[in-house]
Every structure is written in structure tokens, then in C-alpha cells.
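Exercise: predict the structure of this protein bound to adenosine-5'-triphosphate.
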Amino acid sequence: MIDVKNLNAGYGKLQILFDVNAKIRERKITTIVGPNGSGKSTFLKTLFGLTTIYPGEIIYKNKNIEKVPPYKKARMGIAFLPQTNNVFSNLTVEENLKIAGYILPKEKLKERIELALNVFPELRDLLKRKAGSLSGGQRQFLAMAMAIVRDANVLMLDEPTAQLSPKLAEVIFSKITEMRDEYGITVLLVEQNAKRALEISDFGYMFVSGRVALEGKAEDVLNHEKFKEYSLGITAL
Ligand SMILES: Nc1ncnc2c1ncn2[C@@H]1O[C@H](COP(=O)(O)OP(=O)(O)OP(=O)(O)O)[C@@H](O)[C@H]1O
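Solution:
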């Protein structure tokens, strides 16, 4: 679905990612783990077009998209949910959902919102609430529901369980698997909660210092010595 080839990227002259090769497979969950500052968020931002790309290729559905601006990527079905500011706080939940699908015809929009609310029934009672007054978990639900309204093919999530209780993190993980299994959405996930994230994933990558240090089937990454060292906090930045 997304093929990343020899990707080098960063912020202005500051290079953060070095020769990254990765495959984001269709209808699968791919998770990126790694120490703080290893470039995980930068990778997502780069795929969405928010950083400077030096040489490197990003191929989506057989098209090179490294020069495509973010708003066009959104129209191509790629959704990026940053860690914060992923909803419009001063608008209601309902307004957020409507804005997500503003390019859709009215009937289609209604249908998509209904579908999103089936995945996130927790939002039904909150439709008139301002998004800014939601809890962290509810806000995350809303951001994910908005991606469903937009009919995203690929959902890139940056630490969706950050600052959530373990119980709520579990709910988010099960929603992510539901989105893959029931709606065929391709998921690219960046998580601090590395072990749990890999457990629900199909494929995994570990980044260290902006490079791919480990890759493979999620369970192989989970069982790899390098991942165990990282989990124990031994892997150096
Ligand atoms: N907008 C920016 N401008 C310049 N440097 C940045 C910017 N955003 C991030 N960086 C730097 O890029 C490096 C990688 O950061 P990034 O957020 O991608 O890491 P990460 O693996 O997602 O870390 P964490 O797990 O802590 O979120 C860090 O050294 C960071 O300081």
C-alpha cells in the first residue's frame, strides 16, 4: 500500500531519518516502536508531507507521492492523526464529524457519520458537546471517527494511547483492530506502549537514531533480542 524507499528526511538542514526502507501493507497494522527521539513521529509526518525530504521515495498505490502536499494526501485517503490538536476543540463533536466529510454529498455524509458512530457508539451521547471538553480518550475516539467519515484507506496514528489509563488504552487498541478487521483500513501506528502495540500488529519496525534497526512480522520483532533490550531500557539513543 505504501512503499518507502531509501527515505532521508528532517527539518530544514537537520536530518532525522536516514535511508529508511519500509512497507505499509494493505489492511494490516504496522507499528513503529523505538526510543524517544528516534524519529518515529518524524516518519509519520514525513509520509504525510510535513517535513523536508532529501532523497527518498514514498510510493502509494503505485504513485510517487513524496512531493504531494498534505491536503492532497488527505484526499487520496491518507489520514494522519497527530498526538495533539487532532480535533477542532471549539466545535461540537457533531460539527467535527460533519467537517471531516465536508466534501461528501449530504446523503453520503449522513451514512458515513452513522458508520463512524457504529464503531464509536461512545460518541452518540456526546454529539452536542464541544470537542475541547472531551476526555483524552473521547477525543481520540472522535479523531478516529473523523477518519472513518473521511473514508480513509490509511490511518496513521501517533501515540493514540498517550496519557490514557491502561484500561482505556486497551479500548483504543481494540478499536484499531476493529478498524482493520471490519473496515479494511490500513493502519500505521507509532506507540510508546510498544509491547502491547506489537501484540495487536501484523508487522513491526524498530527505529533507533533515525534508522530501521529491526523489522519483520510483529511477533518476530517482539521476540527479538534487540527489542527485548530496548524494552528493558538498554538500547541507546
Ligand atoms: N519541528 C521540529 N524541528 C526540529 N527538530 C525536530 C522537530 N520535531 C522533532 N524534532 C527532532 O527530531 C528528532 C526525532 O523526533 P521524533 O519526534 O520524530 O522522535 P520520536 O521517536 O517520535 O520520539 P518520541 O517517542 O519522544 O515521541 C528529535 O531529536 C527531535 O528533537
